[in-house]
Amino acid sequence: MSPLDVISAADEALLRAVRGSPAWATPLFVAVTFVGGGWGMFALVPFLAREKTRATTTRLIAALVVTSALVSTVKAVVGRVRPCDALAACEPVFITSPGGHSFPSGHAAGSFAFAAFVASVRPVFAVPAFVFAALVAWSRCFLAVHYPSDILAGALLGMSIGFVAARLRFPLDLKGSSRSGSRSPASSRPAPGGTGTPD
Questions:
Q1: Which among 25, 26, 128, 197 is placed 20 to 30 Å from 94, CA to CA?
Q2: For the purposes of burial, counting CB atoms within 10 Å of the CB of 43, is it exposed (0-12), middle (13-18) or buried (19 or more)?
Q3: Segment 169-198 mean pLDDT
């Protein structure tokens, strides 16, 4: 048995074990998978409207767009069929099959890109951000629309992009400081004639 066969067998076994279990959690995972599917981005609109947070929010949205584009590209290349479409014993729970390809999970990638970005720029929110990302990612296995390896790959991809995006700085980030009216130490020193006003 090849390593790929071992991974596939483990994927299917774990998926069958966690699919729809526990049943009482179905409403929770349906809700978080809905929010994690992109609808949660509407919560960023107020931060885009505020000048103080606009630059950072723009970088976050850019990170999510890049994540989505990479996920779509990898899915097209790998072409893995979703478990709910490939395995007779793994019909989707409560929802219908989204169709398309399975690897990697876009929900996992997007939610972990968001969590990694937030954890980098606002560490105080790191724990709730990653807990929510984990719930979104796991919901895809619970609902039987992704294999565990799909969400693992998506999470790693998303975190990588989120951490990188949080550390990038664009000219937009510097607009606030350019309008602050403060002078640099060099401009505040007296000019060689004694006036202190630059020529």
A1: 128
A2: exposed
A3: 46
Total domains in the fold of the chain? 1
175, 129 contact by CB (below 8 A): no
Q: Indicate the SS3 state at residue 101.
A: strand
Q: Exposed (0-12), middle (13-18) or buried (19+): which is 51, by Cβ within 10 Å?
A: exposed
pLDDT (average), residues 63-75: 97
**CA angle 164-169-171, nearest 5°?**
150
| Structure confidence by residue, pLDDT tens digits, 104-162 | 999 999 999 999 999 999 999 999 999 999 999 999 999 999 999 999 999 999 999 99
Range of the domain at 161: 26-173
Asked whether residue 191 is domain-assigned, the answer is no
Please give the angle made by the CA atoms of 35, 38 and 44, to the nearest 5 degrees.
90
- 97 in a domain, yes or no? yes
CA-to-CA separations, 52 to 56, 113, 117, 149, 178, in angstroms, rounded: 9, 22, 17, 39, 13
In a domain, 152, yes or no: yes
| 3-state class (DSSP) for residue 114 | helix
Residue 19 lies in a domain: no
- pTM value > 0.85: no
DSSP 3-60: HHHHHHHHHHHHHHHHTT-SGGGHHHHHHHHHHHTTGGGGGGHHHHHSHHHHHHHHHH
pLDDT of residue 35: 93
